[in-house]
Amino acid sequence: MTSLPTVNAGRILAKPIRGRIHIHYDGDDDCVVFIRCNGREFQIELSPFFLCNSPVITSRYHKFVAAVRDRGEMDAEEEGDSDEEEDPEEIQTHFYDWIISVFEPIFSKVAPDVPSSFDPDMIRTGEAKPLLSEYLSPETHRCRLESENDKPIPIHMPDEESQFMEPLCHIDPDLARELQEYVKFFDPSAVEVSFGRPERALDESPTRVLVDFGSSGEKIACFFKGFGAGAFISLERELEAHRRLLKSNVVPEARVVRLLGVVAAEDGRVAGLLLPYVDCRREDGGVLDDIYLRRTPTPLRERWATQVKEAVQQLHEGGVVWGDAKADNILIDKENNAWLIGFRVGSSYTEAWVDEEKGDTTEGDWQGVERIVEYLFSERYDPDSASGSEFDAVEE
């Protein structure tokens, strides 16, 4: 792998990749956590088997595993804690902080410098323009945590190859060829990462990217939706849904998120999709299901309900089924417009929003819309709770 230019020797910037953890859910307590330090990825293997005569560390580890599984099995008595229930997020945060401190000597030796593409300050000033390829295929190091008599022992295994595949998926060649009739395929090295908050470059998986679709030098902001190495089934289902949408007669003005491009390696393996970047509301991430309805004026809810119905009608008139109608598949942008996302084919309904027998049908879409509208008006508007929110400027 080509080495990257580095800056700030001796500076250690380590963050857990919290959205990525390899753990067995069948009772096996072995797991692998992923730490990004100075642009490198450290895959740290954890198991009670490696913790010898270490009751305190073993208890801490079991508590972390239980928190990841989000089950209430943390036994506070093992470490003499109070009987109060601990927050799983806090448990994970404390464990990651501890792991990073334990492995800091290895981080300092193996990753003493920060590559410019991962340096928040250089990204902020524009001196560094990180590429998606650098995030998808970073320099990786395999490690293991051992302990003896409750003394942690960090182990670096430089001769051991990673046991994890790159986040790339093979797709059906016929599907790929047909998609290329409508959209471009881009190598990850041709896609620039754009962080709204550069400080998150160390621990956040890139989602906002910049792409030149016309070789003009002008780059357009897109949403990058990545897929893991084993997610080929869900990837193909989503690509097939987008293929149908691209071939359809759905009017261009419909507020539905359509496929703009595909990110794929030279061998054809797909890393993810390029979708329109919807500049969402910051207060709640822009997902309708997360919006605090008591702060949302009634006219605004009516606006969203109308827009969702209109978009679904436009889909059906163009011969396309939404397929997974639910509040979690609606984005609200900064202009308070509703956008439909989450197109899939084949068993894509979500229980409680669409009945199983109506999945992937227009009838199921309308059932989902009806329940979305019910959800929108499930709470009364409270002017006092809305004070100071971004809805203050909304006229009733």
TrEMBL record:
Limits of the Protein kinase domain: 184-396
Entry-linked SUPFAM superfamilies: Protein kinase-like (PK-like) (SSF56112)
Source organism superkingdom: Eukaryota
A GO molecular-function descriptor: ATP binding
Protein name as catalogued: Protein kinase domain-containing protein
Organism of origin: Chaetomium fimeti
